[in-house]
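Problem: given the chain below (487 residues), write out its structure.
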Amino acid sequence: MTVHTSTDLRTTFLFPGQGGFDGAALRLAKEKYPQVRQVFERIDAETMNLFSRRITDVLFGDHDTDLQELLNDDAWASQVAIYAAGLASYEILDAQGVRPDVLAGHSLGEITALVAAGAFSVEDGVRIVAQRVAVIQRQNGIEGRMVALSAGADRARRLLDLLDDPMLAVATENHDEQTVVSGPGEALDRVIAIAGQLGIGAIEIDTPFPFHTPALAPAVPEFASYVGKLDQHPLRHLVYSPILQRYYEPDDALADRLAEHFVTPVRFAAAVRHLQAAGVTTFVEAGGRAALSKLVVRLTKGSDVRALSSFSIDADGGLALDATLRILRDAGLADATGAPGLAELLAPTVPTDVFEAYWSEHGDEVLRRIADDLGSFTPRPAAAPAAPSAPAPSAGAPDRAEIHAELRTLYAEALEYPEEVFEDGVQLEAELGVDSVKQVELLARASKQYGLPTREAGFRLENYNTMDKIVDFVVSELSGREAVAAG
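Solution.
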């Protein structure tokens, strides 16, 4: 992966941390975009394993769940909800053809960014978030809060120096007039009192624990050990860390880097300015409440930067994501068909402009209908087709090695992975995180490249879940075509 130092970036997705949740907006998104349901189904399975509760039961009851309700629930609930909302927002943006040049997260949101980039599976992301909570709960005496001060980082540090408490720390530097401090509750009461005397505003942050404080140092090795046992995959996207103040590198031990977050501050303002200097002009907040997009507006005032939100409620009571997608399409930053390759899959003979006009008017309705039908669909029992096998070589048979090399290139370019990860037996979803929708799209591209016929009704994607099976499928189809031509 190339470390970007030149101005070659345009679009950044930002994933929120503490406070980044809007229950009303999330419910609206769930009603309109099937990706929300798909993400939460996977997360539900994991929260059932870990806590014997589904996160959807917490979030989608008979009324909109607000952040305060989540904070009054078990400590994991708010953290998993923020993670899940960010990931669902990312999946919608991705399905709509928005392609970020770089991802960045604010505190907890950095875990979401790494999962969205493919470093961990969705399920492992839940485990990481849950373990982050658990190791803090196991630290005896770690009870504290976080307070936002209306002061810059330097002034906030001078205020903390007056108290000379080693457990007090600057936790996040959001902009030139807002710094969040973290530490024990009693010490923060004194911080608030002194801030009042100095005319500095102080507001408590909605969070179950203090984060980014030296008080959490004992939790670092236990958390690193846990995360180090999870599978780490290559990054599909560039990820910039406001904590590390750099891009993640391919050889980073993410377990160690994520563990450092416990005691290291988030320098969000510096991160936004770095990304702006690298060429980013569009910041899209993937998650709830629009807090980060508002910070970007303040940090880039007077520039041509635009900051867009997703899971928040707009001035008309609608979902902000809808307007965001229209703006991105108008700017040429989103695929008007709603998903790459969708026109090719559904209507290959229809002119692109006609399909785009149709999808713009009816796409949401089509997606809702499909999601509703799938929810009640029961497939007919059928005998499983024989597992694909490589055809016997013949004089006219295509060269398997050549096709494998071509397919590796095709998949690597589409997924932004190194070609070497596409070994014969690599599991596309389980190991590389390529979901079924993306697999269908890639198989369609391969079929088009080799001029393969339409797949038969009995075709089952799960029978072609590794790279060697995809290669064998293409070789088999080409061999059949050669045989027909010869006959």
